[in-house]
Amino acid sequence: MNRIERLCSLLTEAETFADVGCDHGYMAEYMLGHDLCKRAYVTDISPKSLQKAEHLLEKYIEAGRCVPVVCDGLKGVPADCDFVLIAGMGGEEIVRILSDGFLPKRFLFQPMKNTEKLRRYLIACGVQIGKDFTFSDGKKDYDVLLGTHGGSESYTEREFRYGRDNLKGLSPDFLRSLSERIERTEERLKLSKTEENRRSLEKLKAELEEIGHELKKDL
């Protein structure tokens, strides 16, 4: 299953849906085509980039069910939007978008990096993270955060770093990626030139191995 298909499988019904930084607009097309939302907003900071989605979603735009908006982040999205998707950006960028805009009622975030920073921001803002896992499309690993605004929740330090569902053994892709990360850490250890860096890498390797052992024990 490719990245878009996997993300689409996580989308649920909403009154209004927004895809921030929508690229080709595939996710909005899925929501509208499956009658999962009454209206969709597709946004991009670049008018030229947004044209790709406008072409794909032309019939929905003409019918008044899809609204293309050139804007930075959430600035062109109504604050009462039920469900917001932000995929393919860095975790720090998603945090900036939310800080400058609003925290949606429901969200699906797929950061390309710095997921830990995004987790910490969301938990500090008071959200319920329903799903927090890693998946692979066969070429690359992706993190996913799916949740709702409201309530209180706490994460352990390891959950912030690696993802709650991953540590529960709910993602086979995470276990595989863990082995790869251990191998990369071992390679970095061989090239390490300072004692401080070596100690840091040894601590990381030990933690990764401990997590891997615990997950395999539960299989």
Strand order across the largest sheet: 3-2-1-4-5-7-6
Instruction: Give the class from helix and strand content and strand pairing.
Output: alpha/beta
User: Which stretches of 5+ consecutive residues score pLDDT under 50?
Assistant: none
N→C terminal distance:
23 Å
Give the C-alpha Rg. 19 Å
Put simply, the count of helices is 10
* Strand content bin: 15-25%
Proportion in helices: 40-55%
Give the tally of β-strands: 7
What characterizes the major β-sheet? 7 strands, mixed
General shape? elongated
Mean pLDDT: 95
**Which sequence of SSEs, written as H and E, runs from N to C?**
HEHEHHEEHEHEEHHHH
Task: List strands and helices in order, with pairings.
Elements: H1 3-8, E1 14-20, H2 26-33, E2 37-44, H3 47-56, H4 58-62, E3 66-70, E4 83-87, H5 91-100, E5 106-110, H6 115-125, E6 127-136, E7 141-149, H7 157-162, H8 164-167, H9 172-191, H10 195-217
Parallel strand pairs: 1-2, 1-4, 2-3, 4-5
Antiparallel strand pairs: 5-7, 6-7
Task: Describe the protein.
With 219 residues, the protein is an alpha/beta fold. It is built from ten helices and seven strands. Strands 3-2-1-4-5-7-6 form a seven-stranded mixed β-sheet, sandwiched between helices. A hairpin with a 4-residue loop joins strand 6 and strand 7. Helix 9 runs antiparallel to helix 10. The longest helix is centred in the C-terminal third of the chain and has 23 residues. It is elongated, with a radius of gyration of 19 Å. The mean pLDDT is 95.
